[in-house]
Write a structure and sequence with these properties.
The protein is globular and about 55 Å long. It is α/β, with parallel strands linked by helices. The two termini are 33 Å apart. 37% of the residues lie in helices and 18% in strands. Strand 4, helix 7 and strand 5 form a beta-alpha-beta unit. Bound molecules: pantoate (PAF).
């Protein structure tokens, strides 16, 4: 992989990188298209990273439709598909980890201990191997995006992190590889995430600026039932992810909801057009 990147660089190409865990959907493809539009060559990696799954999570059943993914990337005319093997990424004796800091302990980090250390460690390693000029991340994983951007800044990694809009199905459900786990009924229930975010956006547009009131709008939008359980609903500062109290000037609404056994996340900036 490194030799390939070096060769493209010698030819004068800038390198765009889209790290993924596969089971590709329109969200991933939008990152690929953005990279193809902005960079001379685009690399996509597929690696289901065991470090970012906790005990009892879905590592084993995570979808791995490799042939379909490769065909999709072929159609997008991606220049390279990087498929590192587990023993290359995590050879025996591998112990080093990237420590995310306090932002990594909130929300997703609290619900999934160790998750962000696992993400950042593998993303740092992928950056070191691929050597991209730009790396593309979706806003749907807002906390991951913020942490990767912070890691790149804190460690002076020579890569520009490019945030990209969340891509949604026509009815508003954000694309996610985990949507594949949902039964038709659960998929309908899962629309409550987008609906709750839209209600919070409407409240903001109507002049509501109190963090606690906006949080309540979110919570009310997720009606718990046999198939739906709220993990967290929060309204935070978009940069620090600290919970907004009092009157807010900017706000990012965050949701994590369990639909059946599938955990889904979504978010929306309340103070700017839908992203
Ligand atoms: O967002 C993902 O798919 C993963 O967290 C990533 C960035 C590929 C790291 O494993």
């Amino acid at each position: 992989m490194r030799h390939w990147s070096q060769a493209r660089r010698r030819e004068g190409a800038s390198l765009g990188f889209v790290p993924t865990m596969g089971a590709l959907h329109e969200g991933h493809l939008s990152l690929v298209r953005r990279s193809r539009g902005e960079c001379g060559a685009t690399v996509v990696s597929i690696y289901v990273n065991p470090l970012q799954f906790g005990p009892g999570e879905d590592l084993e059943r995570y979808p791995r439709p490799l042939e379909r993914d490769a065909a999709l990337l072929d159609r997008e005319e991606v220049d390279a598909l990087f498929l590192p093997r587990r023993e290359e990424m995590l050879p025996p004796g591998f112990t080093t980890k990237v420590v995310p800091g306090p932002l990594g302990d909130r929300y997703e980090g609290r619900s999934r201990p160790g998750h962000f250390a696992g993400v950042l460690t593998i993303v740092a390693k992928l950056f070191a191997i691929v050597g991209p000029d730009r790396a593309y991340f979706g806003r749907k994983d807002a906390q991951q995006l913020a942490l990767v951007a912070r890691m790149a800044r804190d460690l002076d990694l020579p890569v520009e992190i490019v945030p990209c809009p969340t891509v949604r199905e026509p009815d508003g459900l954000a694309f996610s590889s985990r949507n594949a786990y949902l039964s038709p009924g659960q998929r309908t229930s899962a629309l409550c995430l987008h609906r709750a975010l839209e209600r919070a956006r409407a409240a903001w547009a109507g002049g509501e600026r109190r963090g606690a009131a906006l949080r309540e709008v979110l919570r009310q939008g997720i009606r718990a039932g046999p198939e739906v359980a709220l993990d967290y609903a929060a309204v935070v500062d978009p940069d620090t992810f600290e919970e907004g109290e009092g009157t807010l000037a900017t706000a990012l609404a965050l949701l994590a909801v369990r639909v059946g056994s599938t955990r889904l996340i979504d978010n929306s900036r309340l103070d700017s057009p839908a992203q």
